[in-house]
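Request from the bench team (R.T.):
"We need a structural guess for the complex before ordering more magnesium ion. Sequence and SMILES attached. Just send the tokens back."

Command: build protein-magnesium ion structure.
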Amino acid sequence: MSFPAIRMRRMRRDAFSRALMREHTLLPGDLIMVAFVIEGEGRRERVPSMPGVDRLSIDGLLELAGECVRLGVPALALFPAPDPAVKSEDAAEAWNPDNLMHRATRALKAKYPQLGLIGDVALDPYTTHGQDGLIDADGYVMNEPTVQALVKMSLAQAEAGMDFVAPSDMMDGRIGSIRDALEAAGHIHTRILAYSAKYASSFYGPFRDAVGSAANLGKGNKHTYQMDVANSDEALREVELDLAEGADAVMVKPGMPYLDVLRRVKDAFGAPTFVYQVSGEYAMLKAAAQNGWLDEKAVVLESLTAFKRAGADAILTYYALDAARWLRGE
Ligand SMILES: NCc1[nH]cc(CCC(=O)O)c1CC(=O)O
Ligand SMILES: [Mg+2]
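Reply to R.T.: structure attached below.
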């Protein structure tokens, strides 16, 4: 018998057979756009560490939402960069029915009811210390008092019309408490996207600039609640708990350095599994592209396809609109 008997390159030779054997296809419908909202009218502020990503006032946000709808991007994840004057020790602005987030939600839902809205549930944009929860005298983030605050915040978002509440705080037991409260208030359709395996990552730096929590947090860190980057068995336990408590979808975050965790979570539970290509990942890709060191379109589509291959059902990414345009040949 001649060697080699099996030629793996045969199927790769032509575009038609490469297409036929392709296991995963990235679509605009897999993507979730991420946006930062600010007060005002006609305001657009650059985020220096995230070129191409601007903080938008509600009118600009509506334009961005229109692009999502036009391009077939099914959902938008919203993060507020509130006026520093509304920040406090108890983060009460988070559940003010007329806060920036809720006004944005009502405006978006009135104009684009078909666009899914995902609201971040964590206290960091609203606390004077920049932590995701309420702190005691030693600066420790207290679990149950924080969960109570997150419940109020989730109810307020559901009331404003948010489709998904997405707790990104990593307190224990918050999914169950939020689910109970939503059911009791009659919000039986409000979905919960749990940031279940959220790591204490240094890839969030540009995001903290964008929402304006970096200065408040100072030298602080989130190691007492976000996961140790060295672990993945722990991620499975976190996901198992969140699903048992009533999460509709779970998330792994960050993305590209955690593809192993994503695959384990998808294999273990088969639940809707989302992944977040975070601000630091965006900044790396953008910086290399701006220097002419990487081909932006090629590496972005490759990174997003890798998430699907690793088991992601949906991908939160600051590149969602660009990627959708590229996928559609625009
Ligand atoms: N609750 C905070 C929150 N929600 C989403 C991100 C990071 C997103 C990104 O880096 O793109 C963070 C940052 C943090 O935990 O400090
Ligand atoms: Mg947990």
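Two things stood out. Residues 120, 122, 124, 132, 168-169, 204, 207-208, 222, 278-279 surround PBG (ligand 1) (CB under 6 Å). The chain has one domain: 26-327.
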